[in-house]
Amino acid sequence: MQPQKLCLALSVSIALLAGCRTERPLPPPVPVAEADNVPPGIIVGDERTAMEAAVSTGESAPAPVVGSGVPLSPDAPDSYVVKRGDTLWGIAKVFLRDPWYWPEIWQVNPQIQNPHLIYPGDTLRLVYIEGKPQILLQRGESARVEPRVRSEPLETAITTIPYDSIAAFMSKPSILSKEQLKCSAYVLSSLDDHAGITDGNTLYARGFCQPAEVGTRYNVVRVGDELRDPDDNQLLGFNGIYTGTGRVTRSGDPATLLMTESNRESEPGDKVLPGSVDVALDFAPSAPHTKVTGRLMAVTDGITVIGQYQVVAINRGIRDGLVPGNVLAIFKTGEVVRDGEKHGFLSATDKIFQQKVRLPNERIGTYMVFKTFDRMSFGLVMEAKNLIHLGDLVENP
Hints:
The protein is of the alpha+beta class. It has 3 domains: 50-158, no CATH class; 167-274; 293-395, Thrombin, subunit H (Beta Barrel), CATH 2.40.10. Helices cover 14% and strands 30% of the residues. It contains 7 helices and 20 strands. The protein is flat. The N and C termini lie far apart (79 Å).
């Protein structure tokens, strides 16, 4: 090779090697997102609902804690498209390790009518404003947040908890608070004086606090065993036994009802209650503002072993600072065991005097309040990590 060509080849090689060693310039800093200028995020593209995605999310990686102290989920996406079947609890669990912190990152946008309502097709974006995580709402498929009126009925908005899980509670109550019974009518008699009133029979009822209007439906419920506070034995309510449903055909005192559904025979003295329990489902999950310690007191279907999405009553309510949406942790009370330090070398007499030690309480589930009364509340078991029983503790998460 000629000397001139050799020098040229060496020069090119040196230049290429120098270029390979050149460091890439640092990317420009990501601008802070403002509420009216939301950058596109990474959309969750699968068909899973938020709850399904949350359940499949592992907890192996530590949750990142951001400037506000709110721990995000290890796999929190940049964006999430709301789907039918979603609940606010499930969506909050996708973004947060502890869903009850949702109000602290939910950014209410005043440009959107009814900003608290979320619909399928809406996009929720995780952005950082002044170093703190915020969830911004983008309606529909639009890239800009615009004020517009929804044409869908309110029922299409997602609820905080699964509606199907509390539908039976709302329509056929099996636990009655003292407040519910204060203003309840009762079965007086029936047409032709039937001993047992069933489907198709006519009954007469009186004692309505408000006049019974024609066409209104009422539940007929037999009052069962007393429901007492396990801490102080105060009467809080009663177990209720649903017997049937009647429709008012004539107002007055007594009012006339035609039984349209019968689960068992109704009798004079049974209570006549409104056809549905009023439960607002547009609340957000939140931690109680006060210290709360109570117990699981009664379950709506009369069982003693409780699982996920079962309605349970607790012995704490409005007077204790609880409101719908409050989340409580469920704990199994630690058992009392004897400290057998000497194991098998103790005599029967010595074992009597062994020191008793209470084991620590263990968290076994999560509970969300959806209906409150003065001294009791109804809620749903959102998560169950072990068998849950009546008498287990509920405390601030």
